[in-house]
């Protein structure tokens, strides 16, 4: 038996999905009883050069050629962004069509609305590819790990920033040069703001935390800081301290009190996440029964993401065969409260000072007055009359570090508090 798919978008992910679904059609039929075939593909430009494996007779630039086709039972959305993807998905659901999407922005911002419509109509929305590319994250959190109370999520879930920070670490490149290389290789968009400002990772964390913690998490609940201010010197100092710098997305659930954050973080070289390099992604999950788990793989790209999309298609077809596709979901949402970060961290702080006698003594006094102990101190002369001081503190709450930095900024000889980052503990 065949089943018709309509694919919205034929860019990097869409084209990969069309090709992979065609190549695996026989295997999918064996696994599910249905042989999927792509009936129509929505594109913006009908004349654009595409893979010779794409049947050009299936292309259309009219979305409703797909949405209004009664033979098409499954919509695969790979357009990305909010509109028109949101409108098309809602229209598809209201027409009784199942949806598979790779759209993290849409699920992070409008997932609750979309899933409610699907539930009301009795169809399914699957979105494994929206978070980790080829890495299975949504499925394990929704199914395999549901016997656990998940308390911690920690991950490198943006390949662009991980590539940039890896280049800065391995070659000594400054941020702007590493970004330019990422753009030249296709790892970064022409406008990389969503990646380098941490928003892409924050959207993914919103989705993951909602599932893992059984809570209604909004994007606004995530504290976000990007990597624009990270310099080659920060990366070098991190190495001297036995660490690497990574953009870390993390969420914690402490007795129903959630903390969610995306920020550059020093990670000790002994931690597995320190060795996730270039465009690879990884997520560390801690469950009370399973213990610590790490999921690792390619978080983006045509075929890695298509792998997750087609995996969702297979799951959907199995459910259709069993007659359970679109069954009402019993989603567990517990009353939990998002709070400011209450965890204790060691902190890395780098500041520029006048290279004069007594300056460090004044700084040490401020640390002492704040009740913050120094674990490690690096002092470097960077040019005539100017020095840099790097301090790694003992574990303190983030708000106390903020207060100390405000006090340091008032000292005449402190020219700039240039960078502050938490240092991730090996274990808690």
TrEMBL record:
Highest taxon of source: Bacteria
Active site: 204
Binding site for NADPH: 104
Cofactor (UniProt): a metal cation
Pfam families: ACT, Homoserine_dh, NAD_binding_3
Reactions catalysed according to its record: L-homoserine + NADP(+) = L-aspartate 4-semialdehyde + NADPH + H(+)
GO biological process assignments: methionine biosynthetic process; threonine biosynthetic process
Stored SUPFAM superfamilies: ACT-like (SSF55021), Glyceraldehyde-3-phosphate dehydrogenase-like, C-terminal domain (SSF55347), NAD(P)-binding Rossmann-fold domains (SSF51735)
Keyword Oxidoreductase: yes
Signal peptide (residue range): none
Top EC class, one word: oxidoreductase
Binding site for L-homoserine: 189
Name of the featured protein: Homoserine dehydrogenase
Species of origin: Alicyclobacillus tolerans
Organism lineage string: Bacteria, Bacillati, Bacillota, Bacilli, Bacillales
């Amino acid at each position: 038996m065949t089943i018709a798919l309509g694919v919205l978008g034929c860019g990097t992910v869409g084209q990969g999905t069309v090709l992979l679904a065609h190549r695996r059609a026989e295997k999918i039929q064996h696994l599910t009883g249905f042989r999927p075939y792509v009936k129509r593909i929505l594109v913006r430009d009908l004349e654009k050069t595409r893979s010779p494996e794409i049947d050009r007779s299936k292309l259309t630039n009219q979305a409703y050629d797909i949405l209004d086709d009664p033979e098409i039972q499954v919509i695969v959305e790979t357009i990305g962004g909010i509109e028109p993807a949101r409108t098309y998905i809602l229209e598809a659901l209201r027409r009784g069509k199942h949806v598979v999407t790779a759209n993290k922005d849409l699920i992070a911002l409008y997932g609750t609305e979309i899933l409610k419509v699907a539930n009301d109509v009795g169809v399914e929305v699957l979105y494994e590819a929206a978070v980790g590319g080829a890495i299975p994250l949504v499925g394990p959190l929704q199914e395999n790990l549901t016997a656990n109370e998940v308390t911690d999520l920690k991950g490198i879930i943006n390949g662009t920033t991980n590539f940039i920070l890896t280049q800065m670490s391995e070659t000594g490149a400054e941020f702007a040069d590493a970004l330019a290389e990422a753009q030249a290789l296709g790892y970064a968009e022409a406008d990389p703001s969503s990646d380098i400002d941490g928003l892409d990772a924050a959207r993914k964390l919103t989705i993951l935390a909602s599932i893992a913690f059984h809570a209604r998490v909004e994007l606004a609940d995530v504290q976000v800081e990007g990597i624009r201010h990270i310099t080659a010197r920060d990366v070098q100092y991190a190495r001297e301290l036995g660490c690497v710098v990574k953009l870390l997305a993390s969420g914690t659930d402490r007795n129903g009190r959630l903390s969610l954050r995306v920020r550059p973080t020093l990670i000790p070289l002994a931690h597995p996440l320190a060795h996730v390099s270039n465009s690879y992604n990884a997520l560390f999950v801690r469950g009370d029964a399973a213990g610590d788990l790490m999921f690792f793989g390619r978080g983006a790209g045509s075929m890695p993401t298509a792998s997750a999309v087609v995996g969702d298609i297979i799951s959907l077809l199995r459910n259709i065969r069993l007659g359970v596709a679109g069954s009402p979901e019993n989603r567990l949402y517990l009353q939990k409260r998002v709070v400011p970060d209450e965890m204790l961290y060691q902190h890395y702080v780098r500041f520029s000072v006048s290279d004069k006698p007594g300056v460090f003594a004044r700084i040490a006094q401020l640390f002492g007055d704040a009740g913050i102990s120094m674990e490690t101190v690096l002092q470097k002369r960077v040019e005539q009359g100017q020095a840099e001081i790097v301090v790694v503190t003992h574990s303190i709450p983030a708000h106390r570090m903020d207060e100390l930095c405000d006090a340091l900024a008032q000292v005449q000889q402190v020219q700039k508090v240039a960078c502050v980052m938490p240092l991730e503990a090996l274990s808690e």
